[in-house]
């Protein structure tokens, strides 16, 4: 490695290799290669320590940098706020938290209250705890179970992994707390039932689980509006209408995990708004501040909030939870400016227009390459499921899926895929470019995919 980089970068690479424990990474690989270190980002472009330039088609690798890199106005908003007040525990208020809560609830009609935390996992944990406390306070300890869906993912904590529908995410981390119950997925391409109205049948399967468990024991259901890391699964027609009907029938709170879809990714402020859902909880993180500061939110209704606003003399009546870094002011300051950018630059409109273009180009790739079995998505949130055989729908072997990702990377385009999630089904490529993407970047992404898919299939 000596001589490959300037001296200061050499020192950084060695410090990284010796001391940083990277996420989702097998460090044995660094015995034969250098870690990749990104030095700078601007718009949708990244530069690494070797001076290589990349087009980022996955918004920071995990669906986060919605408004792109290098936004000086967000950095300035955070800086200015930190100089005024950087932190106080969130049992007191601060200006950006109050302002952003108001702006956020304007985007979520029917939801009125915002609980701050610092990660999507943590936001989901808050909802699970609220459901449990409501069960004790209002249902005699019943209605404590949380339903979750096969293939969905809700975070890295033990509680969130108890509600994880991806086996390779939760393997080796158990045992998990009781009361989390799985319902079937709704991916029609991998249909469990041979019926005409698949969406309704997939939703009816949820009712079957509720009846098996006992409706008086089920407090909530936690679902992604569009399944993300489990394969970019858009819900089939009629699914969400029936799910909502079932939940209202049995007095089950609807918890929508918007950590990925939230704040513009699908062309609506939130993914659930594409489907006419009226949720009781919405959890969000990632795109709230586009990665410029850590922030997550649980948004809920006044009805849920009122369940904790009871006898002030009862020291156990309120929601007894705190997130230390929910008191950081930089997160809501960044989120306010991030929201302003999305509005003033009409990025929801751009997401719809560029998302339609991207889907058209991906359908063309499906028509051209037999290796592409299915194309799914909404807005700038798209997936291509790769198969070894279109007739049998046999998933493409993971090393070949890896080769597609590596081939694009070699051409300077960073894409994602399902990984360490579903045994035998980690075969979906994931594309989620920033909401600022233009037609030229869409062309580059899809033309790169075209070349690489052609090589893999040859």
From TrEMBL:
Keyword Transferase applies: yes
Cofactor(s) the record lists: pyridoxal 5'-phosphate
Listed transmembrane segments: none
CDD domains: OAT_like
A GO molecular-function descriptor: transaminase activity
Pfam families: Aminotran_3 (PF00202)
Family of this protein: Belongs to the class-III pyridoxal-phosphate-dependent aminotransferase family.
SUPFAM superfamilies: PLP-dependent transferases
UniProt keyword annotations, A-Z: Aminotransferase, Pyridoxal phosphate, Pyruvate, Transferase
PANTHER family the UniProt entry points to: AMINOTRANSFERASE (PTHR43094), AMINOTRANSFERASE CLASS-III (PTHR43094:SF1)
Record bears the keyword Transmembrane: no
Source organism of the structure: Tropicimonas sediminicola
Identification of the protein by name: Taurine-pyruvate aminotransferase
Gene3D superfamilies per UniProt: Aspartate Aminotransferase, domain 1 (3.90.1150.10), Type I PLP-dependent aspartate aminotransferase-like (Major domain) (3.40.640.10)
PROSITE patterns registered for this protein in UniProt: AA_TRANSFER_CLASS_3
């Amino acid at each position: 490695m000596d001589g490959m980089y300037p001296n200061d970068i050499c020192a950084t690479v060695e410090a990284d290799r010796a001391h940083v424990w990277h996420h989702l990474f097998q460090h044995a690989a660094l015995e034969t290669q250098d870690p990749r270190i990104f030095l700078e980002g601007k718009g949708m472009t990244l530069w690494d320590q070797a001076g290589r330039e990349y087009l980022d088609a996955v918004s920071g690798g995990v669906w986060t940098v919605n408004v792109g890199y290098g936004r000086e106005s967000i950095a300035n908003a955070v800086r200015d706020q930190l100089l005024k007040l950087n932190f106080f525990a969130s049992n007191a208020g601060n200006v950006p938290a109050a302002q952003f809560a108001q702006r956020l609830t304007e985007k979520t009609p029917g939801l009125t209250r915002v609980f701050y935390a610092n990660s999507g996992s943590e936001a989901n944990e808050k909802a699970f705890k609220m459901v449990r406390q409501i069960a004790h306070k209002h249902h005699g300890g019943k209605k404590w179970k949380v339903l979750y869906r096969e293939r969905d993912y809700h975070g890295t904590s033990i509680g969130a992994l108890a509600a994880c529908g991806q086996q390779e995410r939760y393997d080796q981390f158990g045992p998990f707390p009781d009361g989390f119950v799985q319902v079937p997925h709704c991916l029609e391409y991998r249909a469990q039932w041979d019926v005409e109205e698949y969406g309704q049948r997939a939703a009816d399967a949820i009712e079957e689980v509720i009846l098996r468990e006992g409706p008086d024991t089920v407090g909530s259901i936690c679902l992604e509006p569009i399944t993300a890391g489990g394969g970019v699964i858009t819900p089939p027609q009629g699914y969400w209408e029936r799910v909502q009907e079932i939940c209202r029938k049995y007095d089950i709170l609807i918890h929508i995990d918007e950590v990925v879809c939230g704040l513009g990714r699908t062309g609506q402020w939130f993914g659930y708004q594409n489907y006419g859902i009226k949720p009781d909880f919405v959890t969000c993180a990632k795109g709230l501040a586009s990665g410029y500061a850590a922030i997550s939110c649980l948004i809920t209704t006044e009805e849920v909030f009122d369940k904790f606003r009871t006898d002030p003399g009862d020291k156990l009546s309120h929601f007894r939870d705190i997130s230390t870094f929910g008191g950081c002011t930089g997160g809501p300051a960044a989120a306010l400016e991030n929201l302003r950018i999305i509005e003033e630059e009409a990025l929801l409109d751009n997401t719809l227009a560029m998302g339609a273009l991207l889907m058209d180009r991906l359908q063309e790739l499906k028509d051209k390459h037999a290796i592409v079995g299915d194309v799914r998505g909404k807005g700038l949130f798209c997936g291509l499921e790769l198969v070894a055989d279109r007739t049998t729908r046999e998933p493409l072997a993971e090393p070949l899926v890896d080769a597609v990702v590596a081939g694009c990377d070699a051409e300077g385009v960073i894409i994602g895929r399902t990984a360490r999630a579903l045994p035998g089904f980690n075969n979906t490529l994931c594309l989620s470019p920033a909401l600022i993407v233009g037609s030229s970047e869409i062309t580059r992404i899809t033309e790169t995919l075209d070349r690489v898919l052609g090589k893999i299939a040859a």
